[in-house]
């Protein structure tokens, strides 16, 4: 193993890791927004919104994320959507993980016992008040862990944007392999950095989950 | 439309779930301060009737009146929501499974609705919580979370939560059925206390002794109809109808 080479190139990998982190954070934010909207649509009392929500989830989950990215980045200009690679990466991955988050959020909401809603309504709370004060706070606590699973998948999924040449960890590894012919070292380096990012995120999720737990 | 005014009046209540007729033309009146018990075997429609009173299970036909106002009047959706929320503030309900809010302390369980709906200050809320919890003997658990309480304690907090809205009418749906036998009495005591304070109550129960001791009137329901109603002395000691007798015999044997 060429440790010298690894020591020489690792600063470039750190820079790439920072891009991966930025991608992950922005994708998480967009994904949560899509997930919240998707869940609201799927739980709406309007059939049309329920249909839209269900269609979003099945289209996104029914096609490879890579194809979705390619359509957005390479196909976008044809229909007037001009995005640079990073933007396309964030939007593509965010909308993709949003479909999974839709199901996570929806699942946590419907998991709250209907007796909770009934108790709130019998006290005179409106539907919205009962949702805000009773259902949602409990659903939040339930959804932290499964959202953590979604975020874990999303971080690993950021590797896909190498295919549209965003200079993140996977792309950087490939580029250095081109000049050094040392795939083992280069992939090992990026793999370790992915693991650190994922481990750190996992700790944050665990901490949030513990903090939110009901006595 | 009503000649004599009753405090609670249910007229020709009908309810179906799909093709299943659960309530078939039920009539019931309750006067202010009265305590009415509803007994009957499982699936006879007791809960459905109780839940129709605050429109938790809306009736398919018939009317519910409370203190001169029709609960289930037909209004456009938005107006109806407003109307029903106002009606429900006047009717307390206690469930078999307590349904306390697990993410809130005992204090916040009691004060959440009054704070939200009556706009009372934090100081007033604190006083209210203490007063209501004292009343059910749960003051010392004011800072606890529901998961830290026994079933009987949970139910007493649930009663305090309902009372904090200062309801005119209390509905109890088998408030003690989910409790271990040794915890039943503490909840019964609280309900007896309310009875002494002349709270109007409708109580669905499987506990015949309790019904006999607190109720002014008892209804026996079967398959969605009221088979017989009358004072507890009559219903429990000397019922007219054969079916009531059979139910009581089975029930007393079953309990023994
Ligand atoms: N939401 C619902 N959807 C369909 N059927 C229902 C629903 N709620 C109640 N039922 C049915 O209506 C009938 C009466 O139910 P209800 O809960 O009123 O009975 P109950 O007298 O309270 O019985 P128990 O003593 O077991 O509580 C039952 O056959 C029940 O299965
Ligand atoms: Mg019942």
Would you kindly provide a written description of the structure presented here, covering whatever features stand out?
- Chain A is an all-alpha fold and 215 residues long.
- Chain A has one domain (3-212): MetI-like (MetI-like fold), CATH 1.10.3720.
- Helices cover 81% and strands 0% of the residues of chain A.
- The radius of gyration of chain A is 21 Å and the shape is flat.
- The mean pLDDT of chain A is 94.
- Chain B is an alpha/beta fold.
- Chain B has a domain at 100-167.
- Chain B has helices spanning 46-53, 77-88, 106-118, 122-135, 151-163, 181-196, 208-214, 232-237, 242-255, and strands at residues 8-17, 20-30, 35-40, 61-66, 69-70, 91-94, 169-173, 200-204, 217-222, 225-230.
- In chain B, strands 6-7-8-3-9-10 form a 6-stranded mixed sheet, with helices on both faces. In chain B, strands 2-1-4-5 form a 4-stranded antiparallel sheet, covered by helices on one side.
- In chain B, a hairpin with a 2-residue loop joins strand 9 and strand 10.
- In chain B, helix 3 (106-118) packs across helix 4, helix 3 (106-118) runs parallel beside helix 5 (151-163) and helix 4 (122-135) crosses helix 5 (151-163).
- The longest helix of chain B is centred in the C-terminal third of the chain and has 16 residues, at 181-196.
- Chain B is globular.
- The model of chain B has no long low-confidence stretch (mean pLDDT 93).
- Chain A binds chain B through residues 113, 115-116, 118-127, 129, 133-134, 137-138, 141, 214-215, and chain B through 54, 56, 81, 85-86, 88-89, 91-93, 95, 97, 99-103, 112-113, 116-117, 145, 147-148, 158, 161-162, 165.
- Adenosine-5'-triphosphate binds at residues 17, 20, 22, 40, 42-48 of chain B.
- Adenosine-5'-triphosphate (ATP) binds at residues 17, 20, 22, 40, 42-48 of chain B.
- Chain A: It holds the Pfam family BPD_transp_1.
- Chain A: It comes from Maritimibacter harenae.
- Chain A: The chain crosses the membrane at residues 12-39, 51-73, 147-167, 187-208.
- Chain A: InterPro entries: AA_ABC_transptr_permease_3TM, ArtM/GltK/GlnP/TcyL/YhdX-like, MetI-like, MetI-like_sf.
- Chain A: It is found in: Cell inner membrane; Cell membrane.
- Chain B: This is ATP-binding cassette domain-containing protein.
């Amino acid at each position: 193993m060429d440790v010298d080479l690894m020591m020489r190139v690792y600063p470039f990998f750190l820079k790439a890791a920072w891009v991966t982190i930025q991608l992950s954070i922005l994708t998480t934010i967009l994904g949560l927004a899509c997930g919240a909207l998707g869940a609201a649509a799927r739980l709406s009392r309007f059939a049309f919104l329920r249909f839209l929500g269900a269609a979003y989830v099945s289209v996104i989950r029914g096609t490879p994320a890579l194809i979705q990215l390619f359509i957005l980045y390479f196909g976008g200009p044809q229909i007037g959507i001009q995005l640079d690679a990073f933007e396309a990466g964030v939007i593509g991955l965010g909308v993709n993980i949003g479909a999974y988050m839709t199901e996570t959020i929806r699942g946590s909401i419907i998991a709250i016992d209907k007796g909770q809603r009934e108790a709130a309504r019998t006290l005179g709370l409106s539907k919205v008040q009962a949702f805000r004060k009773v259902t949602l706070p409990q659903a939040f606590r339930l959804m932290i862990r499964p959202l953590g699973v979604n975020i874990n998948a999303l971080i690993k999924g950021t590797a896909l944007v190498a295919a549209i040449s965003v200079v993140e960890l996977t792309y950087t590894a490939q580029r250095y392999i081109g000049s050094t012919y040392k795939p083992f070292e280069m992939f090992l380096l990026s793999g370790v950095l992915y693991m650190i990012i994922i481990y750190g995120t996992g700790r944050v999720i665990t901490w949030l989950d513990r903090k939110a737990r009901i006595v | 439309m009503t000649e004599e005014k009753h405090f609670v009046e249910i007229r020709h209540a009908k309810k179906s779930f799909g093709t299943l007729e659960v309530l078939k033309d039920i009539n019931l009146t309750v006067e202010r301060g009265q305590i009415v018990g509803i007994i009957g075997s499982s699936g006879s429609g007791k809960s459905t009737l109780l839940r129709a009173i605050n429109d938790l299970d809306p009736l398919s036909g018939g009317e519910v009146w409370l203190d001169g106002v029709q609960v289930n009047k037909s209004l456009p959706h938005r107006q109806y929501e407003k109307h029903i929320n106002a009606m429900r503030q006047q009717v307390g309900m206690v469930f078999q499974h307590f349904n306390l809010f697990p993410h809130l302390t005992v204090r916040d369980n009691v004060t959440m609705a009054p704070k939200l709906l009556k706009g009372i200050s934090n100081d007033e809320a604190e006083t209210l919580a203490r007063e209501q919890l004292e009343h059910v003997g749960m003051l010392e658990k004011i800072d606890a979370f529901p998961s830290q309480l026994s079933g009987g304690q949970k139910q007493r907090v649930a009663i305090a939560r309902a009372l904090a809205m200062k309801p005119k009418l209390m509905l109890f749906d088998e408030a003690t059925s989910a409790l271990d036998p040794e915890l039943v009495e503490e909840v019964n005591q609280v309900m007896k206390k309310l009875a002494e304070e002349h709270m109007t109550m409708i109580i669905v129960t499987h506990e015949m002794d309790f019904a006999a001791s607190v109720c002014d009137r008892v209804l026996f329901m079967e398959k969605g109809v009221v088979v017989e109603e009358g004072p507890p002395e009559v219903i429990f000691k000397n019922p007219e109808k054969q079916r009531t007798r059979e139910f009581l015999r089975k029930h007393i044997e079953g309990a023994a």
